[in-house]
Design a protein that fits this description.
elongated; two-stranded antiparallel sheet; 10-stranded mixed β-sheet; single chain; alpha+beta
Length: 395
């Protein structure tokens, strides 16, 4: 038993010494793998950031009611009579005064110019009822104040304030034939609301000459009452509306963009990883060729072929792990970056960042080990199958 343990320990120490002895080769191969890992992790972090932004936009206790068949609020229309019927539904929460916690909202797109660019981008402008801000506890006014009902005042999300021209407090936005004064900036904790402009729903509907609401947001009296409310809305022929939990509604808004990011990212990762695995295989084949005599000596000392195979395979895995940890290290800095892109579902600008989770770390390291295993398996097999006499003669 002690002899077998001795036989396994020496090849592993031999692996570490050889990686250290070939510093430049190790660094170059690990660097190539690190680049692939960086791209792979960046894609996963981008998708996680998008999902976090959209899921964080909604509340599990809120329900979004839109026209049946509509996929977005912009496509939807709810009449004033229908909105009044929703207010009378059971299982809708009420405040201390007994007022239903419902926000009748209007959603339209306006064009704003990004800082440093000469082209406009679509921004969601949302008209809120008096309960609108109450139903979004994650949104807080950080500068200025809330708009006054019945006035041409608006507040802008943090991303709009930071990324677009003319979005500071005291400045005016010109749309729908009117000037709208910015009186506040709100932070919605990196949710999609940070990329919106909010104002009074009645004023916005009047300015855009709209006679119907886009959606109705209601807080449930209890989160487990959603199915009851949804069924009631579905069965009422006067409504012809559909209900979704707010979290699920906004998650659906990002599905097409999330699919595109994942597909494009995985394709790039596959292409890059193929190159990295070929590079690892070349490195390991070169290592085997340059250490033929050493392999023969190890075999002559009594090390069996499985021990040689495991040793060289371990060298490839360690090489990939060095690159993997390097790639992950540099990927962590992406969390300081916020990107802005067009959400193809709503045709509006959406800002979100990179998010690194423990799940992504595990997935990335597993991907790294797979690359190392595939790249190093055949060279390790070649090393293990060398005959003692031929190896020593070649030395």
């Amino acid at each position: 038993m002690s002899a077998k343990i001795f036989q396994m320990k020496v090849p592993f120490s031999y692996v570490f010494r050889n990686l250290w002895a070939r510093k430049w080769t190790t660094a170059l191969t690990a660097g190539g793998m690190g680049l692939v890992v960086f791209v792979f992790a960046a894609v996963l972090m981008l998708d996680a950031g998008l999902n976090k932004t959209m899921v964080g936009t909604g509340s599990f206790e809120n329900v979004v009611i839109i026209r049946k068949g509509a996929e977005t609020e912009i496509q939807s229309g709810i009449s004033r009579d229908q909105a009044s019927l929703i207010e009378s539904l059971e299982n809708i929460a009420r405040d201390a005064r007994g007022v239903p916690m419902i926000s009748k909202e209007s959603v339209v797109l306006i064009s704003m110019q990004k800082k440093g660019q000469n082209r406009g981008s679509n921004i969601v402008t949302r008209g809120l009822s008096s309960m609108g801000l109450t139903l979004r506890p994650q949104a807080k006014i950080i500068v200025g104040r809330m708009f006054k009902e019945g006035s041409s005042e608006v507040i802008v999300g943090r991303n709009v304030n930071e990324q677009f021209d003319g979005a500071d407090i005291g400045q005016t936005l010109r749309f729908a034939g009117r000037d709208w004064t910015i009186v506040g900036v709100f932070d919605a904790q990196k949710s999609a609301f940070d990329s919106e402009v909010w104002g009074d729903v009645q004023q916005l509907m009047q300015a855009f000459r709209r006679v119907v609401y886009s959606s109705v947001i209601a807080k449930l009296s209890s989160s487990d009452k959603f199915d009851v409310v949804a069924q009631t809305v579905e069965d009422d022929i006067r409504l012809a509306l559909q209900s979704k939990r707010e979290q699920l509604f906004y998650e659906d808004q990002s599905r097409s963009l999330s699919t595109f990011i994942s597909f494009l990212g995985l394709m790039l990762s596959f292409i890059f990883s193929t190159g990295a695995m070929i590079g690892a295989a070349i490195t390991m084949y070169s290592a085997v060729a340059s250490r033929t005599g050493e392999i023969g000596t190890l075999r002559a000392l009594g090390f069996r072929r499985p021990s040689i195979l495991v040793a060289f395979l371990t060298e490839s895995l360690l090489l990939s792990l060095v690159g993997g940890f390097a790639g992950l290290f540099f990927a962590t800095f992406l969390q300081a970056i916020t990107i802005s892109t067009l959400n193809s579902q709503t045709f509006s600008q959406l800002a979100f960042g990179f998010v690194l989770t423990s799940k992504i770390v595990v997935q990335t390291l597993v991907f790294t080990l797979i690359m190392g295993f595939i790249g190093g398996f055949l060279p390790a097999v070649k090393a293990a199958r060398m005959k003692i006499v031929d190896s020593l003669r070649a030395a």
